[in-house]
Amino acid sequence: MKMSTKGQYSLRAMVALAQVQQNQEEGMLSISQMAKQTGVTVRYLEKLLRSLKAAGLVETTRGAAGGYRLAKPAECITVGQVLQVGEGRLEPVECIQSDGRPCDRKKSCAIQYVWQRISESIHQVIDEMTLKEVASQTPDENQSVI
Amino acid sequence: MKMSTKGQYSLRAMVALAQVQQNQEEGMLSISQMAKQTGVTVRYLEKLLRSLKAAGLVETTRGAAGGYRLAKPAECITVGQVLQVGEGRLEPVECIQSDGRPCDRKKSCAIQYVWQRISESIHQVIDEMTLKEVASQTPDENQSVI
DNA sequence: CTAATCACGACTAAAACAGTAGGAATTAAA
DNA sequence: TTTAATTCCTACTGTTTTAGTCGTGATTAG
Hints:
The structure is a homodimer of 146-residue chains. In chain A, strand 1 and strand 2 form a beta hairpin. Mean pLDDT of chain A is 91; it is low at 142-146. Chain A is mainly alpha-helical. Chain A has six helices and two strands; from the N terminus they run H-H-H-E-E-H-H-H. The first copy, chain A, has helices at residues 5-23, 31-38, 42-54, 79-87, 112-126, 131-135; strands spanning 58-61, 67-70. In chain A, 47% of the residues lie in helices and 5% in strands. Chain A has a single domain, classed as Winged helix-like DNA-binding domain superfamily/Winged helix DNA-binding domain (Arc Repressor Mutant, subunit A), CATH 1.10.10.10. The first copy, chain A, binds a DNA duplex (30 and 30 nucleotides) through residues 4-6, 30-32, 41, 43-44, 46-47, 49-50, 53, 60-68.
């Protein structure tokens, strides 16, 4: 039950893009710049951004002085959208996904109640939180970590 | 970001045990009986239950007519406790775990805020929900599934 | 022309997952 | 005392997923 690096790094990249947009409208960010900021290799970021582009979350311009930018304003992209590109469906088990086949125990299963509740609580967080909100977040040294 | 079968099947087994406890106080359940109810192989259940025992969540008696029972009343065991045995720590990323090493970006990382929020929302659900609550849950045919 | 940049598909090593297998120890009951 | 049912322990193994890398091609500003 861990986020893969795909999801984590995708989010890093998107937040980096959101922070650019915060400062200069229409600013582009190249992969090599993103690699510096995020600590992820150029090669791997390249791959992740390809997926994010396919999902319609970023736009690119090619050639020298090219790069990436958000396809929509940062306040219109949710963390959930980004994570789903990296991770696939975010339900904790397949049997409660709308597109997954339900298991044969479905009708008598008391436990799906658990997965439903977990799923809802995750979605409540990530579907409400936008990149803008994350980008403007300043880490607080004093906050308790777990 | 999916529960492994370890976590899923462990929970099935524990709920089966809780349902026994609901009916007859002090009833034991053998692995072969559990296998029928849960749809998991005897061999694999055996392995999972060993971990649950090591974690102090079930008790056993060996020999013929032996079996397993909950080590504590069903209302005193949370879903979170069970899942943690199967899955390990349930935080979505290692860097926010109290026992995981924080990543080197920690101080400047705006994204830990996301993981914190997700983590809290998951724990709010699974640490409050007891086996008793799950065992008494009747699946509702009419509830919307996602 | 050239250097910087994105684009695409194939490939791979390592780890995690999902079990299985063999056999030993214990105990109730015949 | 034998037998059958049961838990206990240690390995082992095939498959899938993860976490990348690599080579090469296409595009474009200067």
